[in-house]
Every structure is written in structure tokens, then in C-alpha cells.
Design brief:
With 183 residues, the protein is mainly β. The protein contains 1 helix and 15 strands, in the order αβββββββββββββββ. Strands 5, 6, 7, 8, 9, 10, 11, 12, 13, 14 and 15 form an 11-stranded mixed sheet that branches. A hairpin with a 6-residue loop joins strand 5 and strand 6 (64-65).
């Protein structure tokens, strides 16, 4: 038979387990938490929520957040090609360098329409504790198949500061021609 103190302790533990905290706590001090929230090498470490990763547009000097369902504008380059401006922002995470790959997928079947090669790029500080990368260009050699068609704009960021972590973000968008910018 359980004694009263032991029964109360067990009840308190069970009630605490029903709380709203969603972090996972493991039990080995040798754990290494990666950017995607996985634990390698053990536990005894609280798995932190991955940093907020925002995907946006904007030119070389600005970040404009985009949401699912937004229209992104295709910029006609002055040398005959066209591109989408893409910018990234990470809140609560300082990033010096990371490998970045941008992709545009057809929403209906996730077929890749365009993509960049993975590039090791340098991020800039944003605010007190974040990082951003502004003004990347996703070149669209043949725009006709993507104009007005539901698409997915995707960014994959890996090898963050040389480590194993990775982040990804995607938004469902529609691509339309932007205003003329060349003389």
C-alpha cells in the first residue's frame, strides 16, 4: 500500500506532466542540440525550439515578409533575364555563414521549376540577436510556365556556422510580373 506522502508525490508528478511546456528534456550532459531540434550524442539537455526563420522578398536593402497565398513579383533584369528577389531572416539566432539553396516548386505536384546551387553565404546581424540575408536572386530563365500558377518558394539553410544544423522555410505563392525597373 502506498503511504500518503508517496501517493501525494506521485500525484504531483503526474499533474506536472500534464502542463503546457512543450520542450523535451533528455538526461545525458553530453548532448549536442542541432538547429533542427534533434539531439545527437545523448541527453540531459533541453531541446530548444528552432529559431524563427522568415522567408521574404525585397531587394538588396530590405526585407519584406511573405505569407502563404501572397503574390511575389518577378523582376525583369536589365540584361534580358528575370528573377525573384528572396531575403531570409532568423530571429534569436546569430549566423555568420551558412549554405543556402533557393527553389521554386509547382504546388500541384512539388515538381522543381527552378533552383539555385547551394552557396556558402555570409549573413548580417539583425537586431539584438538575429541574422538576415538580403537580396538573393532566384533566376527564372523561362517565366511563362510559372506566371499565375500556384507555386512554393522554398529556402534550405544548412551547415550553419559550420555545424550540422539545418533549417527550411517555404511559402505558397503566385508569381506575377513586377514593374519595369530598367531604363
Amino acid at each position: 500500500m502506498l503511504g500518503l506522502p508517496y501517493g501525494l508525490l506521485l500525484g504531483a508528478v503526474l499533474l506536472a506532466a500534464c502542463g503546457g511546456d512543450t520542450s523535451v528534456v533528455a538526461t545525458d550532459a553530453s548532448a549536442d542540440t542541432s538547429m533542427d531540434g534533434t539531439v545527437e550524442g545523448g541527453a540531459d539537455a533541453t531541446i530548444e525550439t528552432p529559431p524563427a526563420f522568415d522567408l521574404g522578398t525585397g531587394g538588396m536593402d530590405r526585407f519584406e515578409s511573405i505569407a502563404d497565398g501572397d503574390t511575389v513579383l518577378l523582376a525583369a533584369g536589365c540584361q534580358g533575364s528575370q528573377h525573384l528577389w528572396v531575403s531570409l531572416r532568423l530571429r534569436e539566432q546569430r549566423v555568420e555563414t551558412a549554405t543556402v539553396r533557393l527553389s521554386l516548386l509547382r504546388a500541384s505536384d512539388r515538381d522543381q521549376l527552378e533552383s539555385t546551387v547551394p552557396l556558402l553565404l555570409q549573413f548580417e546581424d539583425y537586431g539584438d540577436s538575429g541574422s538576415e540575408l538580403l537580396g538573393m536572386q532566384l533566376v527564372i530563365p523561362e517565366p511563362d510556365p510559372i506566371l499565375g500558377v500556384p507555386a512554393i518558394l522554398r529556402a534550405d539553410v544548412s551547415q550553419i556556422n559550420g555545424g550540422p544544423g539545418s533549417l527550411e522555410a517555404e511559402r505558397q505563392v503566385t508569381v506575377a510580373w513586377g514593374p519595369e525597373t530598367c531604363p
